[in-house]
Write a structure and sequence with these properties.
The longest helix is centred in the middle third of the chain and has 21 residues. The protein contains eleven helices and five strands; from the N terminus they run ααβαβαβαααααβαβα. Helix 10 links the parallel strand 4 and strand 5. The protein is globular. The chain has one domain: SGNH hydrolase (Rossmann fold, 3-Layer(aba) Sandwich). By secondary structure, it is α/β, with parallel strands linked by helices. A five-stranded parallel sheet has the order 2-1-3-4-5, with helices on both faces.
Length: 290
């Protein structure tokens, strides 16, 4: 089973998260690399910085938290020049076991330049339940790939992602019906506990890359109704983390929620193009003064 599972990353690449990994490898030094979850690729438009002559890329990956971030940044730095600034995004989901670093749904670790095994993920990041879920998925995909011999990459989609520098544009608007439909997706988040190991990992990453000479900034994109699905205790600990960032002199940026009305979001928690333009302009005004 484990041997067949090794073929799990030999399928035809059509997933935008994996394509984004590929598109980021330009061998050009970036001024700013944006890292984080879907709130990043939905909410930050790299083209906003073009007028300043800055080379940027949006390397957002769905559910990315501190553990995904570590693998993605290490993978990037293993083959690319170090960027001048890494902008790491956080949200209420970042420190939740339920809502971030979902290995079995988004096995990004298997598609890095140097793929990371499910066993290494189990030993370093997760638990036995998640490991067996990853292994089952890997076996299923590995079997299909072994039998069909499929491979390659969707070059059309890859080129679109390269052209947008990783940004995923949406013109959708959130509606009351959409909010109601998505409630059942988000209600389990109310059971989230704030994971101190994830907090520790994120601080370690920031300190590690800072020592290596890379400027690090932490940002929090607007996420509309997301905070309603976390307990008061969790939100208190999240705000405590932000306070601890400031005591460590780590730059933290977030915008005023009142600037973002419901027409700025495509669903319960993601910015649409209108909202992303506002947030990107905010970041432009702040990051260029650092």
């Amino acid at each position: 089973m484990i041997v067949i599972a090794k073929y799990d990353n030999r399928d035809r690449i059509t997933d935008e998260n994996i394509l984004r990994l590929n598109a980021s490898k330009t061998n050009k030094k970036l001024d700013i690399l944006f890292i984080g979850s879907s709130y990043v690729y939905s909410g930050i438009i790299p083209g906003t910085f073009d007028s300043l002559g800055l080379n940027t890329f949006n390397l957002g990956v769905a559910t990315s938290g501190p553990y995904f971030n570590e693998l993605i940044i290490n993978d990037y730095l293993s083959s690319q020049p170090a960027p001048g600034l890494i902008c790491i995004a956080i949200a209420y989901t970042t420190f939740s076991e339920i809502a971030s670093d979902i290995w079995d749904q988004y096995p990004i670790h298997r598609y890095l330049d140097s793929p990371v095994s499910n066993e290494k993920v189990f030993l370093n990041y997760t638990n036995a339940k998640t490991y067996f879920a990853m292994l089952r998925k890997s076996f299923k995909k590995g079997s299909q790939n072994f039998l069909t011999g499929q491979g390659g990459i969707d070059t059309v989609q890859l080129n679109l992602i390269k052209a947008s520098k990783g940004y995923n544009k949406s013109l959708d608007y959130c509606t009351r019906l959409k909010l109601e439909e998505e409630e059942e997706i988000f209600n389990p988040y109310l059971k989230s506990t704030f994971n101190k190991k994830k907090e520790k990992k994120l601080i370690e990453l920031i300190e590690k890359y800072s020592v290596a000479g890379i400027n690090i900034v932490v940002v929090a994109p607007p996420t509309f109704k997301l905070k309603n699905f976390f307990s008061d205790k969790y939100k208190e600990e999240y705000q405590g983390f932000i306070s601890r960032l400031k005591t460590k002199n780590i730059t933290f940026l977030t915008d005023i929620d009142e600037k973002y009305d419901p027409t700025c979001f495509r669903n319960t928690d993601h910015l649409n193009f209108k909202g992303a333009k506002i947030f990107s302009e905010f970041l432009k005004s702040k990051l260029t003064t650092l």
